[in-house]
Amino acid sequence: MSILDWIYLAIVSIGAILAVFRMFKGPDVTDRVVGLDVLTTITVALFVFFAMVFDRYIYIDVALVYGLLAFVGVLVIARFIERGF
Amino acid sequence: MIRKIVYSIFLATIVLALVMFFAAYPFGKNKMTVGEYYLNNGVAQTGASNIVTSVVVDYRGFDTLGEVSVLFGAAAGVAILFFVLAENRRERKNITSPNFVVKVGSRIIFPFILLFGTYIFIHGHLTPGGGFQGGSIIASGFLLLYLAYPGTRVSRKKLSAVEGLAGLTFVLLGLYGLMLPESSFLFNFLPKGQLNALLSAGILPIIYIAIGFKVAAEFAGIVDDMMCEVICRGGEK
Amino acid sequence: MEKAGKLNKYIFTVVVLYVSWILLTATTRADELIVGLIVSLLVAIGSFDYLSEHGLSHLTPKRVLYLIIYAPYYLWQVILANFDVAYRVLAPSMPIKPGIVKVKTNLKTDSGKLALANSITMTPGTLTMDVKDDTLLVHWIYVKDETVEGATKEIGTPFEKYLKEIFG
Amino acid sequence: MIYYLGSFLLIAIGLYAIIIKKNLIKILIGLNLAASGVNLLIVSIGYIKNGTAPIFSKIGINPSAMVDPIPQALTLTAIVIDASELALAVAFVVLLYRHYGTLDIKKIRSLKW
Amino acid sequence: MVNLANPILLIAIPLLFVFLIAFSSAFSKSIAKYLPIFAFGLNVVIAIMIIPDVLKNGLVIATTAGFKPPIAIDMVVDRLSLFLAIIASLLGFVVSIYNVFYIDEEPEEKFYALFTLLVAGVIWMIITGDLFNLFVAFEVTSIAAFGLVGFHRDKGAVEAGFKYLVMGSIGGSFLLVGVIMLYAATGTLNIVDIAQKSAELTFQQKFLAYALIFTGLGIEGALFPLNAWLPDAHPAAPSSVSSILSGIMTTAAIYAIFRITNTIFDYNQIYFFLMFFALLTLIFGEVAAFFQKDIKRMLAYSTIGQTGLFFFAFTLHSTNGLQGAFMQIINHSLSKSMLFLIVGGMIMQVGSRNIDDFAGVGRKMKVSAFFLAVGMFSLMGLPPFFGFWSKLKIIFAALQQTNILMVASVVIILLMSVVEGAYFFKLLQAMFFGKPKQDREIKEASLGMLTAVVVLGLILLFVSFYPTPIIDFTHQAASDLMNKNYINLALKLGGL
Amino acid sequence: MRLILGYFLLYFGAIFLFLGAFGLIRLPDLYTRMQASTKSTTLGAFASVLGVGVIHPDWFVKCLVVALFILLTAPVGSSALMRAAYKTGVPMTDSTTIDEGKEFFGEEQEGEAK
Amino acid sequence: MNMSLELLLATPFIGGLLTYIGGKVHRWVRNIFAVLFSLLTLGEMSLFYNTTFKGDVWGSLFGSKLILQTNPITWLFLLIVTSISLLVIVFSVDDMKHEEDHIVLDSYYMQLLFVEGAMIGIVLAGDLITFFMFWEIMSWTSYFLIVHGGKKSMDAGYKYIIMSIIGAYAMFVAIAMIYSKAHSLVYPDVALVLSQSSPTFTIWIIILLGVGFFVKAAVMPLHTWLPDAHSEAPSPVSPLLSGVLIKMGAYGLFIIFYGLMSANLAKNIMPSIFSTPVLLYIVQWLAALSIVLATFLAIMQEDAKRLLAYSSISQIGYVVLGLATGTSLGVAGGLFHALNHAIFKSLLFLAVGAVIYRTGTRNLSDLGGLVKKMPFTFVALVVGIIALAGVPPLNGFVSKWMIYEALLQKKEVFLLIMAFVGSTGAFLYVYRLVHSIFLGQLSQKHENVKDVPILMQIPMWVLVIATVIYGIFPGLAMDVIVKGMKMFGFAPIAYNLYGFPQGSTMGALKVINIASVLMISFVVAWIFFLLFSKSRKVSQYDNYAAGQVVTPELKYNYSFGFYMSFGRVIKPIFKISIERIYNYWVDAAKIFGDYYMRRVYTGNLETYNSYIVIVVTIAAAAVLLGGKIW
Ligand code: NA
Ligand code: NA
What we know:
Chain E has 20 helices and two strands. Chain E is mainly α and 496 residues long. Chain G is mostly helical. Mean pLDDT of chain G is 78; it is low at 534-559. At the B-E interface, helix 1, helix 2, helix 4 and helix 7 of B face helix 1, helix 4, helix 5, helix 6 and helix 8 of E. One sodium ion binds at residues 50, 52-53, 124, 128-130 of chain B.
């Protein structure tokens, strides 16, 4: 990993931490889910980034699977929030 | 409060003991005997470039058969718990119609999800994905459909047929190995092919496809049951 | 745009899926192509009813051309939107004046309305909450015009002219 | 070692939730945390420094640079098992809620002794 | 020619039928009913075909994927695991017949699939030669059991199922951690291979792994105090399921403890430690059973007590003790399964699980009641039933060492046997001589259900009056275990 | 050249990923936070992934698939979430000027009740 | 003589099954089968008369041979078992007719034959496994016989089976301890090993086996099951229990004392009192206490069968007392009394059973004046009570007399006095029996009572004759007893057909001796009468002294509180009822168990989960402490 990669990682990680902060702080369930959603997107990006860093093409598939499942997850949660569980 | 403290101490004790145990087996050290064997011989013996797949489907394929069975058992259990006689089912009145964006978006993305899930389990022997991942992706597609159209239900009979057939394929492929001179369950009797080719690794992709279908059917079943519980709750005892 | 027949929709789905498969595998190896075709044919059986109601009629050259034109425009709007966000988030005064407004649309097809809704979501200061018939409910971070007509003009119209061509 | 510690902590937190929490959902979360801890532990066992995934996607990858594939396979199995258990558990919770009208574990004890 | 005497078929065939049930249910509902009978009928045949091989070589190893044991998972059958597998298959077969007439609640096909899966999982736990595979088998068994316990979906069933699920999951996680610790220490998952490679480790180095594995298996194996789910779950399940749960499933978990203790953790301290668990299990099971008003709950607690008894015999760590344990396992499996089947039929007639409502039932359901008495007598260890021989053996084995601890243990065992007699006789007495409470018409159970009961009963009577082959067989099985023939033969035959 | 463009895209993405998250913290109510996060993180991830595709040309197609996927799914999720928040009554910030949602959803709920 | 012991053992079991199956055909097939098979068993048994020793290996278990054997002593017990069983079955044919449920009756006969078979097994056993096995079979088969008697019999049966199990398990421990030393349970091997083992070990063996036998023989304080069980059981079963089954306890005592321990061994390892090993001496005292206390309790009973039941405890006391003397004479007396008691107690129970059969009650105060209605039963009962009281020339006399003589020779005065008191007390209660049932006023209800059918009379006739024969010709029994005792190392006793000649070990059986015993008894009885008749209180039911007009209602109640004055004297005995002590502890244990079980299985999942964590924590702590928690 080059220094450039490290810096990239640092910036994105701070973003991730902020998202986690929102996840824990709330105050509404929806806030937490939004935090989670942001975290998910960041994670997808990171997966692809790590694929590059470790030179493993196949990690991209992992990113895609993850992104897809997270997407469906958010929809499900949104639906349940609407119903009031 | 005392309870919390006491159990915290207990758990700390457990963690400490675990630390002590693992301190004796240093982190990040070299691989173990059997694992090393797989890395050195896996490609030659199974034809799968993804050694994890060769472990999951071939060397430890019997574990995977169990795993499939566990999932099957869970799906059946959920089906039992959420079972509602057809005549007892009643629509819930206060279901709000889903968001238009979700509705149409889900509908459009559904075919792609199916395709993508299939892609994942067909490439299971080449990439980190596999039958489980592919299957769950397909099931998530069904989940989306439920979100978009709360009234629809997947045909349970079709799901049963698919999961049954997929399971049968797995076991029968395994049993075929017993009829060969090697007389070994799950013996990889097909040609191994060229490394990294789609058609390689003998029976591994076939099994993974079967698993993919099975997992998809089972998760879809679970989703269907849960949705039915949410939407057409009924049959209370 | 008329609703298409089953076969029409099926072929359309196969085509779309096959293209996606090729993109996914990102290879032209024969085995992948053959398997991809088979998979597309099979998957389409189960899903052709969902992808689009209009089938192959999406694939007229004009529509495809408009799509190709629309893509960079959309992307540009997205980028603009982000600078807008950056400005609002980072500016110490935090210039926001949020509100929820209605926006009308002339688009008839579901896919068209969806595209409009998504476009609005991804572009400066607006986020579509729901669509009903010809009305979009939009959260606007800086409400410039509270009337339906005004909002429609501000938010919807720039995209509609392209989308009208693409989705009808 | 930090991974080990992390997994132990996950296990401990999970167990703590299982024992201390009264809400069924939280108990399930506890179960899943503990299970994740176990999975993390398994993966950590197979970790080697600078190791890569054991996939020969290109010619000439050195097997000795790869991590032990067994723990990965085991985790895969364990995850599916955990997911299955979780699905069933959720189903049980839904039915419990239907029967008892509460998610408080202390109130769900018609069977005792 | 296909060699049908392959232990792997004992698992593969039931699994095949599990999926067949799922598949067939898409087309016809009624086929599913009969498929488990075929599955376990075949299993019994195959198990019997394996007997000659096992008697000849002492051990049969079945490979998977065409690789030798440490590389791939293997199934290992020696005398001990074979006879347990036979019992499991047999119970599966008999109870499947019973099910056809007993289960009348939807969704039936799911029930049959899970039931078949449950028994398959039990057999799996018994014959697997791989530690992680054992965990998988454990989970297969558990998940099937969870679903089946909740089958009735009523308040009690759901609560019991949930409690069982939570405790079972915790157990599974502990078991898995234990297995992983051994993997970390040895780099292999094959039981024999681990036994070999961990030989140089000290007791203390391995103890935590053992404790975790023990805890995990002990939860399923009904050892006190890990067994609190059991008295809820066994009664809540349909009686045919209780029959399998009590009859062989807890036993399978205990068997796994036997096997792992014997191969990997064969230290005297451990046996000493286990003895406390055994005695506590015995005491709490029997005493609690005494106070029960619910007939199935009483039987469930009795299962705990019986488990304590044969686990105690195991902890004696002698050929005689093991033989006693194995004999008691046979006794308990046959008797307790039969009892649950009978009680299931009676509950159908009486419409209640309260013991008081069973007054006079014995005079109406004569065949059922007769075999109920036979089963209870055998569990109590009254001659001439098989339980007498096994209890005799256990006590003899215990008093081989005449130290005060053993004498105290024997006193406890016998005291608990008295307690057992107290509650069994109370029930029998009410059933045969009590005045019927209600004027509800009580008929004998249906012929199909009786068939299952009678088959088990006749087997029990047969081994009672002709125990010699079993005594000899269990003796050989016990000395195999003591001499570590499992390891020795696996090394010789398995190419480890 | 390729590397420069790639890393430019990566950093461009990273900054917006960060911004989106930062907006989550800074903005006053859920709705405005969602405005920020949806747009920024989507673009951030999109650019990031494409950046990788540029650096690794043989991966480009695959990266494009991922990027497009993000671009297409993100608005759907946000839309669903925001409607859910609105329907469950998550409060809006005080500076909110207009709220036509009541009317929009009101008819619908009536319509469904019959 | 080629009769096989297995066949003898198998006959009643096979017969039982066939009887049960026969019942499906017709009730008479069943009845005939039952009688035939018990007769057959008796016949087979009789073939072993004069067999001094015969042993068969019938199997092997855990490396120990299973043996059936016979010798004159076992023959004596076989005689008791098979003959009384036959008579009981014959008696049952009519007595049990009232039972409507034919399945219940079918299984009743089957169980009778099974109990007989089990007892034969016990007697024939040549090793402890066989012994114990049949012991247990006897316990549960006889349990089923007891609970045939209706609602109350269930509690009685329950108490019986639980105490039997406790007793049996005490034996079980002893047997297992022996096995661990000897690795064989064949009597000679056991005897050999016991002769080499430490005193403590031997004492434990005796105590543990003794508990088992005491329970079955109902020696105080382990007798509490007997009064209920024997009185609540169906009429024909009571003689089997009282006459035969409790003798198995006596047989067991004989086997351990003289078969396994051998008399001299017992002396070597223990201090002796009155030249009796201390353990045997304690047994003697327990037996003597049983004699006296049970006699008192019998006197107080209002229920005819209960009275006989307490009497059995007292009479078995004589048997055990005799067996525990350790001298040839005493042991012979004990064995002989076992036979005699079987005969006359069966006779008494059958006679009372006959009365119950006709009147439907066994409450003494409801009965009276039946002498004219049931003359034969009256005769049978009188013969029985004379024999029981030990009056010559009936059989009870000779055996009791031998026991007195043995005690006299050992100069155990206290025990002798207690034995006498028991005998005297017996007069009181047997008189009560005959008086309350047959003498006095006839109840109006019983105006139409007839004597019992012939099938019920025959067994009584047979027993009456036996009582007389063994009374006049004690040599018939002594022939077997002495021959058998020789095999156990006892010095032979000179005897002849009519009694004991001059110069035999026990001195001649002279009329003077008999007379003096009789005299003493009568004197004591008279003293009692004088002492207590003065202080007798007037009860409202006492139509002798109330001075009121005797109304019809009153006159039938005259026998209530017959020995009430006496009752006041022995009241303290009731107060410290052993049964109440047992019940107290059982209740305490139940409450304790219940409380703690509830605390463990709370129904709360959190608690259950924390158990798991605690177990793991303990293990973890053990690891952290270096594995040193044990
Ligand atoms: Na894979
Ligand atoms: Na688990």
